[in-house]
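Case study 2.
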Amino acid sequence: MSIKDPNSADLYCLDFRKDGGLIAVGGSDHEIKIYDDLTKSVITSLKADGAINMGHANRVFSVRFTDDPNILVSGGWDNTVFFWDVRDGKSTGFVHGPHISGDSIDIKENVMLTGSYSNKDVLQLWSISERKLMHNIEWEPGLVAESEHGYIYSASFDKLVGKTQYIAAGGSGRNEVKFFKAAKDHDLIARLSFNKTVTCIDYANSRNVFAACCSDGQTHIYNYETVTKSE
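Prediction:
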């Protein structure tokens, strides 16, 4: 079956809650619709509501449920990531900075990863509980921030069982995917180069497999344990 957006918006992103009960969908109307998976109907809409409730002022390109099933994060072209309580449809806070233009928000426990379509502060880690920046990951080690070439469309933690080892991100700056250590100084440990813009990346859930999709219609699949040991 299919569901028609009530505002006829262009839709750019979605996420299932881990229990499968809710679906969050964001798009061009600056809103995030929360659907009940059983009834396939909108139960709440997360959006700005005058001066009472803050919300997005531009297109929404990434939504992600946190480990708390009631809290959702969203980001887009307004350089703001919002935190929402889906029970009452209200914003519970925000962080300013990330310019989100694709599937470039990920969550691992109390840490949020953001990838920005920018040449400055391209890849960042945030504390969810404290709503503050924890670390800027250098996309181009040794260069000043304004000279970075990330322009990120997709960013993700690995899905290895247990402690996270890798962070990966890809974009259009130099048509690359880069892998960084998830701990300590977040060193750059490997990179993959492509002919066209990297628009989407993801890790397999139960195997050490990584995939990247590019704007030339190509999907590239790798064993990422092999990739990250190549440098």
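The longest helix spans residues 224-228.
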